[in-house]
Write a structure and sequence with these properties.
Length: 218
């Protein structure tokens, strides 16, 4: 859990060489700082600090603990399972609300699958089929505007097959002709679904992409 101390032998060798006295107050605070940051990153923001401190004290002083380690593991697992369920439900609801309101806008088109798109620029070239490769520029954001990917920032278009990407992309790009630029809005079923993607895209996230079809590669 803690990353501050990675090589104890090296640290203590330096300590013995320099003959410096370790400041245990600062060391203790540093340990707590690291644990606190890890708890924040895991989402355990409402932790009871008094009970947390007592558990650490019981372990370090080898005193009887209030619960067993097995019970502790089960409690922690249950907490994070319930938290994950709540977060997933919130993401699903946020996506539904956003897409419902978005569909009411005059310039938004909705397909039977639930894909929504806005035509920013029409194209005049070829349209790809579901088995073609394409060259595109794009950027993707969460509903709150957080940018998670952008070929524009990388300075190089992406090349991929339409049968190698998420369902929303496969469908949307077949609507576009070369030179077209669309903004597409994907429910989680047409995006990364229950799995999410990496650290940036949580499970059950509705996503927004701006996509520019540069070329169909037959």
């Amino acid at each position: 859990m803690l990353c501050y101390v990675t090589n104890k032998k090296r640290i203590f060798a330096r300590y013995l060489t320099n003959k410096q006295e370790i400041n245990m107050d600062k060391f203790s605070y540093a340990i707590g700082l690291g644990i606190g940051q890890n708890l924040m990153s895991m989402g355990a923001r409402d932790i009871n600090v008094d009970d947390f401190s007592k558990a650490i004290k019981d372990v370090l002083t080898q005193s009887p603990t209030a619960i067993t380690h097995t019970e502790a593991r089960d409690i922690v697992n249950k907490y994070f399972e319930e938290m994950e369920t709540k977060i997933n439900a919130r993401n699903i609801e946020q996506g539904k609300v956003f897409l419902t309101e978005n569909a009411k806008k005059e310039n938004i088109h909705t397909t039977p699958s639930g894909l929504q798109y806005e035509i920013l620029k029409e194209g005049t070239g070829n349209k790809p089929s579901a088995t073609d490769k394409v060259r595109c520029h794009y950027e993707g954001t969460l509903l709150d505007g957080t940018l998670f990917d952008s070929s524009y920032k990388r300075g190089e278009p992406a090349v991929f097959g339409l049968n190698q990407v998420i369902p929303g992309w496969t469908e949307a790009l077949q609507l576009m002709a070369e030179g077209a630029k669309y903004r597409i809005f994907l429910p989680h079923e047409l995006a990364y679904g229950a799995q999410g993607a990496g650290e940036m895209i949580p499970p059950y996230s509705a996503l927004i992409f701006t996509v520019e079809l540069l070329e169909v590669l037959k």
